[in-house]
Amino acid sequence: MFPKSTNAGALALLAAPIVVIAAVLIQPTLSGDASTQVTALTSHHQAMIAGLTLSITALVLLIAGTLWLALALAPRAPRLALAGAVLGVLGALVVLFENSVDAAAPAIASGLGPAQATAILERVHSGAIAAAEPLALLGGIGVALLGVAALKAGAPRWAAAAIAIGALGQVAGFATSTKALVIASFAILFAGLLPAIRALRTPSRPHPAAEPAPAAAVS
């Protein structure tokens, strides 16, 4: 069984999908369209801020959980664990950067008129965010690789498949601003992570030592 200090990593990994689902349910829209965001920030200001805050929190939990999972899998699948950690954390950092830029949107929308706010947000989205957006796919690929590595830790095949499907599905969900797909993908990811973590927490049983052969009778 893992020491208490490493239990935090497992809890962070399991908490991340739940927090994301809560954020998506709260946010009126996932659209990256500037005018849609300005309308949502004007009509549902508090809900948008709460959703953005939860999204950033979930990303921090996901980064911590991904690193923990990679470290836990490294003794059994070192190459997959390393690749999954690098890609997973890099992709999550890209999304964290995007969300941090989006965090300025509420101040822009409340401080300027709708037309001016929309114009500024369009410039932001067509600049830094647009350049970094394709890299977000790396995060999904990294988590999917960790799902494959979990097979070597004793996780069932369906759990590894669920991790891969959930990790890649959420990328598609955010890219298309489809709330139902994002929620379903993170629910599938959570369902796959549970048995994978359980497999890592179950100590492998040592093979029983061979019994010594009976001594030959001395005549």
The pLDDT mean sits at 83
Query: What are the low-pLDDT stretches, counting only 5+ consecutive residues below 50?
Result: 205-211
What radius of gyration results from the CA coordinates?
22 Å
Name the overall outline: elongated
Strand content: under 5%
Helix content: over 70%
Q: What profile does the largest beta sheet have?
A: none
Number of strands: 0
Give the helices and strands as they follow along the chain.
HHHHHHHHH
Compute the separation of the termini in Å. Answer: 51 Å
Which structural category fits the helices and strands? mainly alpha
Total separate domains: 1
Tally of alpha and pi helices: 9
Q: Could you explain how this protein is built, in words?
A:
There is one protein chain. This protein has 219 residues and is mainly alpha-helical. It has one domain. It contains nine helices and no strands. Helix 8 (157-175) runs antiparallel to helix 9 (179-201). The longest helix is centred in the N-terminal third of the chain and has 29 residues, at 45-73. Residues 205-211 have low confidence and may be disordered.
Q: Summary?
A:
The chain has one domain. Helices cover 78% and strands 0% of the residues. It has nine helices and no strands.
How would the blueprint of this fold be written?
Elements: H1 4-26, H2 34-43, H3 45-73, H4 78-102, H5 105-111, H6 114-132, H7 137-151, H8 157-175, H9 179-201
Helix pairs in contact: 1-3, 1-9, 2-3, 2-5, 2-6, 3-4, 3-7, 4-6, 4-7, 5-6, 7-8, 8-9
List keywords for this structure.
78% helix; 0% strand; mainly alpha; 9 helices; 219 residues
